[in-house]
Structure formats: structure tokens, C-alpha cells
């Protein structure tokens, strides 16, 4: 008989874990060419620390779509084309390669900028001075 873990058996626990993972990638891992290109990019750019060079080379144009001022604060919204989109357009179909941003800036004071990198797998705040 399987040993109990927190009210359930080891077999039950393992089966539930498999069910969770089975829901991921139900329509395959994707196009093998794109997976190969992703691994190449990771090996050739990310591991060699050349990501900043790729960003600087791309020279993406920042487009400010909306500016609102209220109570001494400037609210801005905009977007730009991702440098990754320029390096690998086949991997970013449709609107995926457009990065949208929002900013809240005090009009009178100069302060540090806080960049929130949500949706990257690391949902925390970083400060850049």
C-alpha cells in the first residue's frame, strides 16, 4: 500500500502532478525550426552577454501615444518594437513584437525610475538609477 502524504497516497500525489504538466503544451512544443532558432539565439546572444548590443543595434523608435497631466503629474503611454522582433521576426507573429508601456512622472521633481518587468517570470520590482 502506498504511503500517505498529507491525506493522499504517493500514487495520488504523482498522478495529480502529471495531470498538471499534461495540460501544458497540449498542441506540441511548436515548430522545430523556431525552437532551434530560440536555442541558437540563447547560445549566441544571451550566454555571451550580447543582448545589450542587440538592443543598441536595433534602435527601436519609442512612440508616445498618450500624454495626460493631472495634479502636477504626467501620465504617459506608448509602445516600441521589441529588439527581439527585429532579430527574429519569424518567432514573433502578429502584435507579439510590440512592447507597450505606461509611465507616471512628477512634473517638478527628478526622481529615480522604477521599471516593473511583469510577465517575465520574475514578478518583482527593480530600480535603475
What sequence of helices (H) and strands (E) makes up the elements? EEHHHEEHEEE
Helix content: 25-40%
- What class do helices, strands and sheet pairing give? alpha+beta
Identify the quaternary structure here.
Answer: single chain
Can you give the mean pLDDT? 74
User: What is the number of E strands?
Assistant: 7
Please describe the biggest sheet, giving its number of strands, its sense, and whether it closes into a barrel.
3 strands, antiparallel
How many distinct domains? 2
Give the termini separation.
Answer: 59 Å
Question: Which of globular, elongated, flat, extended, rod-shaped describes the shape?
Answer: extended
Major sheet: order of its strands?
3-4-5
Question: Which tags fit this structure?
Answer:
129 residues, two-stranded antiparallel ribbon, 7 strands, 32% helix, 29% strand, extended, disordered C terminus, ABHD18
Describe the structure.
It holds the Pfam family ABHD18. InterPro entries: ABHD18 (IPR019149). By secondary structure, the chain is an alpha+beta fold. The chain folds into 2 domains: 1-27, no CATH class; 60-128, no CATH class. Helices cover 32% and strands 29% of the residues. The protein contains 4 helices and 7 strands, in the order ββαααββαβββ. The chain has helices spanning 10-22, 32-46, 51-58, 83-87, and strands spanning 4-5, 8-9, 63-70, 73-81, 98-106, 113-116, 125-128. The strands form 3 sheets. Strands 3-4-5 form a 3-stranded antiparallel beta sheet. Strand 3 (63-70) and strand 4 form a beta hairpin. It is extended, with a radius of gyration of 22 Å. It starts with a strand and ends with a strand. The model is unreliable at 1-5 and 122-129 (pLDDT under 50).
